[in-house]
Specification:
This protein is of the alpha/beta class and about 750 residues long. It has three domains: about 200 residues, no CATH class; about 400 residues, Rossmann fold, CATH 3.40.50; about 120 residues, ANL, C-terminal domain (GMP Synthetase, Chain A, domain 3), CATH 3.30.300. It has 24 helices and 35 strands. The strands form eight sheets. The protein has a nine-stranded mixed beta sheet, sandwiched between helices. A hairpin with a 2-residue loop joins strand 28 and strand 29. The termini are far apart.
Amino acid sequence: MKPMALRLFLWLLTRVCYRVTALGPNHVPPTGGALLVSNHVSFVDLLLILASTQRFVRFLLPQRVCERRWLKPWLRYLRVIPLPSEAQPHDLSRALQLARDAIQQGEVIGIFAEKDISRIGVMLPFRREFERIMEGVSAPIIPICIDGVWGSIFSYQRGRFFWKVPRRIPYPVTISFGQPMPATATAFEVHTAVLELNTEAWPRRRQTMKLLHRAYVQRARRCPFRFAMADARVPHLSFGGALTKVVFLARRLRSHWAGQEMVGILLPPSVAGALVNFAALLMGKVPVNLNYTLSEESLASCAHQCNLQTILTSQVFLNRIKVKLPGRTLLLEEVAAQPRLGEKLLAFALAWFTPIGALEKAVGRAQPGTLDDLATIIFSSGSTGEPKGIMLSHYNITSNAEQLGQMLDFGPPDRFLGILPFFHSFGFTATLIGPALAGIGVAFHPNPLEAKPIGELVRRYGLTYLMATPTFLQLYLRGCEPADFGSLRFIMVGAEKLPDWLATAFEDKFGLRPVEAYGCTECSLGVTINTHDFRAAGLRQIGSRRGSIGRPLPGISVRIVTPDTGTPLPLGQPGLLLVRGPNVMRGYLGQPEKTAEVLRDGWYVTGDIATLGEDGFLQITDRLSRFSKLGGEMVPHGKVEEKLHEAAGVTEITFAVCGVTDPRKGERLIVLHTLPEECLPELLKKLPQFGLPNLWIPRANQFFHVDTLPRLASGKMDLRNIRAMAIQFTAEKASEGKEAT
């Protein structure tokens, strides 16, 4: 009876609960022993693997699982090998020896190298038990990746096992069997192979993905009365109300945007800015959110690259920023003025009751489109050169929103603070698109520098997620009260390095420690993040580590290579960071040569220098462009800045280091600083005590005082302007020297 019952259960599992696709099952040898090493996402992973291969697989499972009364008969039939804890070393050795003997006798053994099911939505480090199993064994190791199970009823999404409503039934699942690896492969090498299998399996998720506007419409119709967004002008807007306004705006904009593929938007993070972006997507237009902190020349360049004919903005906002716009200006106040009753009723009917295809036609969309269509153009910050238009597709942004949702594990009760501009990928993906697709409310504020209004906003709406930059956190540390941030349960920062002193000071005042993430516009936003830890009796899963930028998001692979040759580097050794995943951009707009420089065989070359730990956490040490070659040695600007701040005993960013051409040495270090001039001699006297090699210490006559260090709207240092200022200072100094002689 048991074999028949098991076969029936496997049939129901793989055809009713899950729709399983097996990739590369032929990599499991048809005869002879082998060890299958897999990640662990759900309670039914063992059965999913059994259903995907022709070979019978004996698994090693934790002893506490094997002792559960209702499982014992089934696990005994499956000849599962109980795996004792490390607290029982003799019993553990016997279990590993039993597995080793079985492989040598031609059996296939399976092990979940994470040991425990992931509770935090990310692949945990692989334990070394399987290395001990394979000692002296000539059989291969087969890496396996289980993808798509997170969020199903047997996973631990939102901390709940079984009791949750799945997003879809049957759940599409991919089981990927990798190329055989030698028996000597380490836990880290197998872990890396499984991560890359996850990247290769991710495109299978396309079958369940929707275009951004369709996903938004579907979400709004599923929860029409849930809070969607608010700002100072609109205190409360539900998802249903927001969708109605989006449809109304789309119909009003139809004639203004006729015949235009890309449309310019110049609005701050606000309800109006969000609605206009979704209206553009619904109409089949590519929204281009323009950076209102750029110069007029740079704005004109962005508009020219995208062939923008119109730029939609607000008169109230224009009065504040006072910038001259290229092309024809559309004012939102005029576009949305005096709505007629018939328009309102039609927008309501289209938003709530019309099939999506008919709704698209009603707002002037010609074709439904595909996931590979452009979703937006986001221009690079221009910190080291002219802004480049980064082409992001619906697939890129949908994938990144799904990746972030899996690791952050937010739900309907959560609410986001929206202070990041939409012209930045951090704001566009993390506080505009991501929350909207997940059904999460956002409270917007146009100016991230206003600490008191932001504190009041968090308090009033009970916001739980804060996405910011370290620069903004410094302002909130001084300007907000502890009670203002009482509702927050997660604070994530990006765009620049999070100083440890700032994280500690924030935790001391508000009781919540910010964690660091890493991303870039070319990757739609997120690459790695620190997430929540999980704690329970006898179990702890680490989601964050101080000083790190976190682990890669699901579906993303990373490599650390030598900058010159691209050769992979060993653990812990700094090198150039490469990224591969579904969120990597299509390329730079109209610049195929620059695209080819950074996209190599599917890998994006970030330009950042990083180290990778055995636990999977990454640490950024500097940018490749932020090195100077002095005396044949590569000198990192970031390290010199770090020691300057340490020697000066300051916490706020006071020093900026860059390199300029030197006719004798090739390059020399220049330091711009805001330190009082009278403090500089003492700093120079102390600096050699802080471990910098003599070659790395800037000369005293290469320090130049400035009132403020240039910054971008994101809060990052404006490296381009810093270098321009350094060149100007050195030229003036050289000119003074000539005059003196």
